[in-house]
Specification:
alpha+beta, D-tyrosyl-trna(Tyr) Deacylase, Chain: A, 2 domains, five-stranded mixed sheet, 14 strands, about 35% helix
Amino acid sequence: MLFSFYDTPFFRRCIITLLLLLTAWPAAALSAPCSGMGKLISNGSFAVADTSGKIVAGCNLDQQLVPASIIKIATVLTAMQVLGPDYRFNTGFYQDSAGNLYIRGFGDPSLVSEEISLIAAHLRAQGLENVATLFVDDSAFALEGPIPGQAISDNPYDAPVGALAVNFNSIAVFKDKHGNITSGEAQTPTLALMHELARQRPAGRMRLNICCDGSDGMERSARYAGELFKAIFQQHGITVARLGGTKPTPSQARQLYLHSSSKNLEAISANLMHSSSNFIANLVFLQAGAKRKGYPATWAKARAVLQEELNILLGPAMAQAIHVEEGSGLSRESRASSRVMLTLLQRFRPYRAVLRQQDNISRKSGTLTGVYNLAGYLPNGRAYVIMLNQAKNTRDSVLARLQQNYGAH
């Protein structure tokens, strides 16, 4: 009998190995280094999925990366599931027998000066004319500390959150060349806090995080809210004799009014996504936690509820591949992969209208120093994710290439 190489165990092993490689080729290609992107991706990933959720292109799909603000997609999706698109935030107004007014906050992110004017007009129409002492009730929050990743800076994106927080916890100030300080916006009265924060600053217009001086977030948030409510109440003919700081609402106090936010969660989420507001995102994050776990709101409750929803939306196995430290993406401790983000985008489709549109592409950016991410939908409806944790920001070039290669109908 002639010896045949084709009958040897070695040849059979070679054939089996070749078949296994051929079978695994599509998955391997999708997880291969991003060689097709040339020098655009040195440390990161990208992925594209069709409208059914099937991944059609990508690399480094399971690499754990800092998501920055694209994690707001997970925050909003969780809130939509837990609270519902038509959810409205509440703020309660109570009066005791001594004529004191208690404002009980529940984390409404839309309490801007114009909204407070509507509240003041309603209370004045109900007959409220005099307030002995105005108290802020912030007992609906018991936060374990500041926002994870929050820095002490002038920037509004580092503004703290609070149970009663107004104007996104930032102040617009104008200081003229003579040192005179006034409010930087017509709808907001000039407050003592504005003088305090702008006194040592150069002349000009500025918008400052209220804790730019390193003050405690909860205390400063309550102070700002008290000053603003008092000033706007007085514009509407409601005299406030004094501010009393923070105090829980007594059980015997009478409810005068329960205000529901003019905008529902879907509208608030559009504002959140368009402006990439860390302040709004974390109040939405905390509210979802409190809704399911009960007040007071805490970071731990919010994280637990988001993880519960991720287990449902992604499945327990994939949900373990994402870690969300807080709701805005400010923390560098959060992690996600392109594969996880694509699955979230598939679930997010019913709410894609809240994303900002640019050149007919839905997009949510995520930016920190050395972090340049994008996620959204191409014009043909395909979901895309770009996650770059590298020194050079090439995300727009990567997006242009994805649009060229995968954006056609």
